[in-house]
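During the reporting period the student researcher (J.K.) took over the structure-prediction task from the postdoctoral fellow and processed the backlog of single-chain submissions. One of the processed entries is reproduced below for the supervisory committee.
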Amino acid sequence: MAKADFNDLANGENHSNDPIVPKSGQQKAYDNVNKHMSKGRILKNLVVVSIAFLLQFTAFQSLSNLQSSINEEVGTVGLSVIYGALVLSCLILPPAVIHLLGCKWTLPLSMLSYILYMFANIYPQWWTIIPAAAILGLGAAPLWSAKCAYLTETATWYAKLTKETEQAIVTRFFGIFFFFFQTSQIWGNLISSLVLQKSKVDQNETIKDTSQCGASLCPYIKLNTTNFEPIEDDQRYLLCGIFIGCAFLGMAIVSIFLDTIVLERKRNAPTGLSLQLFQRTVRHWRHGTQLLLIPLTMYSGLEQAFIAADFTKSYITCTLGVQWVGYIMICYGVCDAIFSFLTGFIVKVVGRVPIFMFAAICQFALKVVLLMWKPDPNEVWPFFLIAVGWGLCDAVWQTQINALYGCLYPRKQEEAFANYRLWESLGFIIAFAYSAEICTYIKLYVLIGVLALGLIGYGIVEIKLKVKQKQSADIETEETTEDTKKY
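J.K. obtained the following structure tokens:
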């Protein structure tokens, strides 16, 4: 999926979602829980949360990758609805839900919204997919916010017990969590490919007219191919049944094995539904750098939606069949995860600008290839190679745009990351909304144009940063010179 918009919620930056200051009686409960939570218990809870999310998103991410292939237009519109509801939910719901249910029980109850969406995929109609997608979007923000709050709080306790810095332990806890989480791409896509794998007899009977596959594929073109035929009912029931089972297991693990905690909360945080974050998000548009970053932030959502909905349908399913989607997307997910981990170390060596330029040049080249390439069912390796390249580029956009927002607005991170989620989600919404309406080559030209515009905005931001840093350095030099003259 479309992973990037959920992961941003997990970076610990959405402070408005921090629950509320405990009352005097609750403070005693907080002290008691903290006192009796051993290191082993804290680590056990970390593993419980990680495994539960692994199971949940093994199902959801793989199902998201298949929407354009198995559910046609209603599938991609449903994904658009998910991100629209997610934007609203992020700005309003999490504080109220966590305050009402507590951190622990917010997790399994929010997971139910994902399970409802999986049930809707058993009988994918407009009246089942769209309402279920809206409910999932509303439930996603409290789920990720509660997870962030739980891991951050227990990491803080662990740091006190081990005498290590909070920053180091929080980073380590989230690193362990995402180690589990990122592997969900592997298991979910593997399950989908094995379930949807056709028998040798079916493969011999398959009619493959691939003349219009790739950039030439348009909604109005009818190909003489069986690759776009609906999957068999027994395959759909088996696939959805496995995914629902995984999600229910994840929900059960959290409900049974996760310890309840009382959070040490901000004293002035809202306890109910509030529009404060929305108002601050809009006011943040007054920053010129925020306006300049909007195109690049939207591009992050557009390019993720393209690989999940359009590359999988126009190239993989059209040419090879839906059974290949999982295998190729495994390759994408693994490369994305590995390079996401390595990017932080690379930036320390070469700097932020070169890594942005690498991703931009790489993705411009990939789009040109996708525009010119005529996919051949007898040559499978190019599909994997494009998935690898796209995963490397996506890793840069996800990690470094996040980092850029953090560097630009260290004192306004809540508003900054709310804007990041807003504009990236808008990219997802637009891409999924037009996915079934326009030709693939037009989508590629849109991506090229938005990326070019985004890079211009990003370049201006970097120039402004350099000028500001130079001015600060000049001021410090002048002050040092004046102090020297005094002596």
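The committee noted the following: The two ends are 63 Å apart (CA to CA).
J.K. will present the remaining backlog at the next meeting.
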